[in-house]
Each structure stands twice: as structure tokens, then as C-alpha cells.
Automatic annotation (TrEMBL):
Gene Ontology molecular function, alphabetical: heme binding; molybdopterin cofactor binding; sulfite oxidase activity
Pfam families: Oxidored_molyb (PF00174)
Residue span, Oxidoreductase molybdopterin-binding domain: 231-376
Protein name: Molybdopterin-binding oxidoreductase
Regions that span the bilayer: 12-33, 45-63, 75-93, 100-117, 123-145, 157-176
UniProt entry keywords in alphabetical sequence: Membrane, Transmembrane, Transmembrane helix
Domain of life: Bacteria
GO biological process: sulfur compound metabolic process
Species: Glycomyces buryatensis
Length: 502
């Protein structure tokens, strides 16, 4: 028998083989994860570990620089790094197969370890990454063995087939994520929410009729999202539960049906993010349906010395809220509905907290599964560990929605929204160029817990102008013009736009 010749493929083809092998493995893993546990997908699990381990300064920089594009960028960066390492592994296999196999094994184990150690995931979460490694190794083994005697065309076909299977698996995983059997979406679709026992008060004329102005009620599809997790949890509502524990007389656990069986309260409440820049969009107003958080906690007999309520999500996120605010009579809710439908999966299905007057990072835990009564001294929640301040009042804010940058001379309706949740908005003023502050018309609102629309009819002369808005909260305090960044407790400063009138 003839001894096999040295492998005829070019180094570039070897690198290509490494990339194709790894992509096929990862794509298959993402498909398996999509039908079983999306958070176990290797790229998702590794991203979550990177996010969790990121130094606070880097996290703050990423939020300031990229806003909510930070996560897609992280994923793209990881994917690029992976392609580079996969190409290297392919090249290395040419001369030293064991070393190359070791590189792939280390990557697979990293993904497996990351997935298995995610909060709420089990050892089984390691399987997709291990499968990815096995596929990549098998492809490279074929390439270096049988591929040696194959024709150039044969090898090309092989790589094309591997890449094709990988692309199909990747497309499949995206489709499954969107439409698939992921039971969370199906369970959610199957649920009809009971009617509210305590309906929301009539908001009155909450919408001023101005084109380009944010609607008073933000549609769910347009509602901003902030998640520390790269892949949002798909919670099984049948096994989900909410436990009240810590400094209480009796620990209690509630099923989803327990919540639906309680008195359901409907309230319009505006939620905003502490990392919303001046004039930013990380704020929205929704009609939430839920049970009273205070009543639920009271059933467990909380120790009055517990000054912090720590809420935990199935994904490991935690928030700490002051118990004196939870119990002061405001409409703090464990919400199950949003704008007339069950809580969307991305907004916390099956249940989340909403506490009017607090920023989301210290109150609005999505996919909430545990409520621990404790003290501020005893525990620092997620963002506090990363250098953000403990809960403080929401800063009075106002935003110009329309016009954007151009207008025709004549009457131009300037309009926007203003918010200072729980204190409410008592006035909004607009300044044109360096002129006087003039008072704007305000919409009606049902309570101080929602944002408020404002409008002003401006007789605009052609030329360049600047418009600046300023709100006054329900306590009579005027929004500060001092400029501060979002970290550590929310941005301040006035929203101003430059406009050219033709
Ligand atoms: N589990 C979980 N809950 C969370 C977060 C998160 O990252 N994970 N982000 C919080 C922050 S910072 C905000 S501003 C709100 C945003 O809620 P939304 O995504 O429904 O708009 O959710 C809060 N609850
Ligand atoms: Mo936030």
C-alpha cells in the first residue's frame, strides 16, 4: 500500500477548514440551545460571563459610549475573536493536530463551563458547547485524514457542505427563537388575563394631538429594554414561583395561578432608566396589571428592621428597593400584564416588579422569582456592586420630541414629555434662543406616577434657533440646568435642540 502523501491543502484552506468546522459546531449548538434552553447557547453563556466579570469602569464606559448597542457589539466582538481562533486552530492542525485539538477543546469547555454556571441553569446546559466541540473536532479530523486523498474539488465541496449546514443551523436557531416551540411564548399566547379588580383611573385627555409627539401610552413593541443578560430567560410558568423570604415571620411561595387569583390592580406608571441621557429614549409609560407588592409581603410578616427589599430574577439580576417606599401606600406592583396583554417575554414574563418613583435598576426586576427582606448594610445588589448609587429619587426630566431639526416659518408646535414619577409634573417651560421662559400647555394625567405631555405654539421666524425645555415637579422644584452624566445616579441638565426654520 502506498503511504499517504503529506496533506496537499494550502494554509489558507486549512484556516478555512478551522473556521467552517467551528462555525458548524457553534451553529448546531445554538440550534439545540434554542429548542431546549436558549441561555445555554455558547456565545450567549460566554457573553454573560464577560458581562458579569466586566470591571465597573468598563461597563459604565460601554453604556455611555454605545448605549443599548453595547450587547450586539459584545456579541460581534466575541464572534470575531472566535473566528480568528478557529482559523488559528485550523492552521495549527496542519503541523500539530494535538495542539489544535486542544485549542478547540478549551473553547468548548469554556462555553460548557460558562453555561453550566449561569444562575438558574444546570449541568445539562454544558451539552450544546460540548456538542459544538465534538462537531468541530470531527470536521477537522475528516479534513486531515480522508481530506488528504480527496481531490481539491472534493475538499471544497466538503467545506461548502459544512458551511451550508452551519448556516442552516444558525438560521434554524433564529427561527426557533422567534417562532419556535420555546414554551414561554406559547404559554403566554395561551393565557387570557383576568379583568382588573381595581381598574386604572381614567387618564382623561392624556394625549395632546401633535404629530411626532411620543404617545402617552408606549406600545409594548416600542418600550425600551434594559437587560444584563444577553439572552432573555424563557421562564416555564408552570414551574415558576415567587418566594418571600429573609427577615420575615413565615417564608411564603406563590405560583403564577396564586398571583392571578389575588386582587388585580391596574395602574398607569412610567418606568425610566437611570442611564437615560438628557433627551434620551430609555423611558416609557405603560398600563400595568398586577398584585399589590405591599399586601403580598405583609402576608409573610416582615421585620420592621428590614429596610431593603432585594428582588432576584431567574437570570441572577438583583435590585434593592427601600421598604419604606414599598409600604408607603404607593402602587408598588408585582406585575403580570402590560398594556392589556400578559407581560411580554422580554419585559419579564411571567412577573416583574414595578415601583412608581424608583429607577428600574433599583426596583423593576423582570422574571422575578424571589423577594428577600434584608438590610442595605447586608447586601449590595447588581448595579450597586458595579459602582452605581443606592436608590435615590428620580430626577425631574423633560424632553423635546418635535420638531427635530427643521421647520417652516409660521406656527410651529413644539411638544414633548416630562417626568418626575410620584412627585408628578406641575409645569413645563420653553425657552427660545435666549428669551424668557414661557409656560407650555400640559396634558391631563391620572397621577404623578406617569409622564406628562406638553406643547407650545411657537411663531417661528426663519433662521437658526435653539429650543430648551425645563420642567417643574409636583413639589415645585425646577429641573436643574447643572449638567451631570448618568453614572452614578442619573443624568441632569436641560434638553436643548438646534433648529433651522426655513
Ligand atoms: N432581570 C432583570 N430585570 C431588570 C433588568 C435586568 O437587566 N434584568 N434591568 C432593570 C433596569 S436597569 C431597567 S431600567 C428596567 C427596564 O425594564 P424594561 O426592559 O422592561 O424596559 O428593568 C430592570 N429590571
Ligand atoms: Mo435601568
Amino acid at each position: 500500500m502506498e503511504t499517504p502523501k503529506s496533506h496537499p491543502a494550502s494554509p489558507r484552506a486549512w484556516a478555512g477548514a478551522g473556521i467552517a468546522a467551528s462555525l458548524a459546531g457553534i451553529a448546531a449548538a445554538h440550534l439545540i440551545a434554542a429548542v431546549t434552553e436558549p441561555r445555554a447557547a455558547p456565545l450567549s453563556a460566554i457573553s454573560d460571563v464577560v458581562i458579569a466579570a466586566m470591571p465597573p469602569a468598563v461597563t459604565a464606559w460601554a453604556i455611555e459610549t454605545f448605549g443599548t448597542a453595547d450587547k450586539p457589539l459584545l456579541l460581534a466582538g466575541l464572534a470575531a475573536g472566535l473566528i480568528a481562533v478557529a482559523a488559528l486552530a485550523g492552521l495549527a492542525w496542519r503541523k500539530r493536530p494535538p495542539a489544535a485539538a486542544a485549542i478547540i477543546a478549551v473553547l468548548a469547555l469554556a462555553g460548557a463551563g460558562a453555561a453550566a454556571t449561569r444562575p438558574g441553569l444546570s449541568l445539562a446546559a454544558a451539552l450544546p458547547s460540548l456538542l459544538a466541540g465534538a462537531i468541530a473536532l470531527s470536521v477537522l479530523a475528516w479534513w486531515s485524514g480522508r481530506g488528504r486523498t480527496a481531490t481539491v474539488t472534493g475538499r471544497r465541496w466538503f467545506l461548502a457542505a459544512v458551511a451550508g449546514v452551519g448556516a442552516a443551523a444558525l438560521a434554524g436557531s433564529l427561527l426557533v427563537r422567534r417562532f419556535g416551540p420555546a414554551s414561554a411564548e406559547a404559554d403566554r399566547d395561551a393565557l387570557t388575563l383576568p379583568d382588573a379588580d381595581v381598574p386604572a383611573p381614567d387618564p382623561g385627555a392624556a394625549d395632546l394631538d401633535v404629530g411626532g409627539l411620543s404617545p402617552w401610552q408606549t406600545p409594548n413593541a416600542d418600550f425600551y429594554r434594559i437587560d444584563t443578560a444577553i439572552t432573555t430567560p424563557a421562564v416555564d410558568v408552570d414551574t415558576w414561583s415567587l418566594t418571600v423570604r429573609g427577615m420575615v415571620d413565615t417564608e411564603r411561595t406563590y405560583s403564577f395561578d396564586d398571583l392571578l387569583g389575588r386582587e388585580l390592580i391596574e395602574r398607569d406608571i412610567t418606568l425610566c432608566c437611570v442611564s437615560n441621557p438628557v433627551g434620551g429614549e430609555l423611558v416609557g409609560n405603560a398600563r400595568w396589571l398586577g398584585v399589590s407588592l405591599a399586601d403580598l409581603l405583609a402576608e409573610s410578616g416582615p421585620d420592621p428592621a428590614a429596610d431593603q427589599l432585594v428582588s432576584r430574577s431567574v437570570d441572577g439580576f438583583t435590585a434593592g428597593s427601600p421598604t419604606d417606599l414599598v409600604f408607603d401606600g404607593r402602587d408598588a406592583l408585582v406585575a403580570v400584564g402590560m398594556n392589556g396583554v400578559p407581560l411580554p417575554v422580554d419585559h419579564g414574563w411571567p412577573a416583574r416588579l414595578i415601583i412608581p418613583g424608583l429607577y428600574g435598576y433599583v426596583s423593576a426586576t423582570k422574571w422575578v422569582t424571589e423577594l428577600e427582606l434584608t438590610t442595605f448594610g447586608a447586601y449590595d445588589p447588581y448595579w450597586i456592586q458595579r459602582g452605581w448609587d443606592g436608590p435615590g429619587p428620580i430626577k425631574t426630566a423633560s424632553r423635546i420630541d418635535t420638531p427635530r431639526s427643521k421647520a417652516d416659518s409660521g406656527t410651529v408646535t413644539v411638544a414633548g414629555v416630562a417626568w418626575a414619577q410620584h412627585r408628578g409634573i406641575s409645569a413645563v417651560h420653553l425657552q427660545i434662543d435666549d428669551g424668557e421662559w414661557t409656560e407650555c400647555e400640559l396634558s391631563e394625567v391620572p397621577s404623578g406616577d406617569t409622564w406628562r405631555q406638553w406643547r407650545f405654539d411657537w411663531e417661528a421666524d426663519s433662521g437658526d434657533h435653539s429650543l430648551t425645555v425645563r420642567a417643574t415637579d409636583g413639589d415645585g422644584n425646577i429641573q436643574t440646568s447643572d449638567v451631570t452624566g448618568v453614572k452614578p445616579n442619573g443624568a441632569t441638565g436641560l434638553h436643548s435642540i438646534a433648529i433651522t426654520v426655513a
